[in-house]
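Task card 7
Instruction: Convert sequence to structure tokens.
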Amino acid sequence: MHELVMRIKDPELCYVFAANATRRGHPELALEAHRRAVDLRAEAHAASSEAEKAAVRAIYAYEEALSYSKGKRTRATGTWQLVNRHGLLSALDRRLDSRGSDDVAPVLKELGMEDYSFAAVREAYPDAFSQIAA
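Output:
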């Protein structure tokens, strides 16, 4: 990640940086800034395990993909409601089973965050998800 992007400590400043980078002809820095914003938002969220940290990051990446594709800030309201009702990993598992997250997969790929998808989290932490199913 570029040094300028790493210095940013606030997600909102990442969005400003991304807009400025795009306007000045540096789309690669804009993509890094979007990824940094997701990382910063996920770090601010309390999670007890690495799997839960990855799940939170995936939800924020999903929000970022929705926002990027719609052109305005969009929250994953339904997903957060599932998290509040069932917990992080269980909500992610239900979200993957209920409907495909393929609707944002191309956008995540465009943003360089395909490793932050719901499916990638399930593949990275199969033990955590097998405990939920049991």
